[in-house]
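Exam prep: given the inputs below (a chain plus NAP), describe the expected output before reading on.
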Amino acid sequence: MFFINRNNNNAAGMSVGLMGGTFDPIHMGHLVTAEEARQQFDLNYVVFVPTGMPPHKDGEQVTLPEHRYLMTTLAVMSNPSFYVSSVEMDSEGPAYTIDTVRHFSFGEKEIPELFFITGADAILDIFTWKDYEELLRLCTFIAVSRPGYSLEKFRETLDKHCPGMKHKVHLLEIPALAVSSTFIRERVALGKTIKYLTPEPVEQYIKKHGLYVPTG
Ligand code: NAP
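Solution:
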């Protein structure tokens, strides 16, 4: 569980990256992304926030939050700047990003500068997210993509919906994102190796719990 002492005034001078995703499972692309964002945006910490019940994936089959949380914890163990938060898993009902960001905003004083890091594809739909205007005021988005992805059209739409907010979304290109969670799930289902695509403890966890193996 990640927390910052709310009485610690240093929180005001801190930059924190919230790495939001389903992480089903977490992989090297996510870890490279978080480390690159930490360095490029001078973040003190990156907190991985696995989704609980994703509001936009109602009815889709997503692995139990407990498994995704534990795999994420195993994956970040060796990086002293990485943490994992269970805040979205602990919330009853759908977990919205605005509630997560409010959780890390700590009230009126001692507010760290917040960055929300996630896939550019997910951010394209931000206009459908709960309280997106407040979200854009409270944090800066880092939209992560593979090289070659253009956010120009998105920026135009953003300008139409929220004039003056263009600067609140940055694009970060990560070649290692050629790896995806879908790719890993498909390989496990086919009995193929996932070695070096995800940290070894995660690979072992998937094996031990028989995740992503088709049943029946
Ligand atoms: P998704 O649809 O599962 O993923 C979209 C794409 O982005 C996939 O290619 C995915 O690759 C990639 N991606 C996802 N998270 C990433 C990350 N942290 N770094 C790099 N690439 C990433 O998206 P999702 O995981 O469900 O949602 C992403 C975040 O947006 C979550 O935190 C979710 O809660 C938030 N969200 C909030 C709302 C709302 O508040 N209403 C609505 C939608 C999404 P992989 O599959 O390889 O990860």
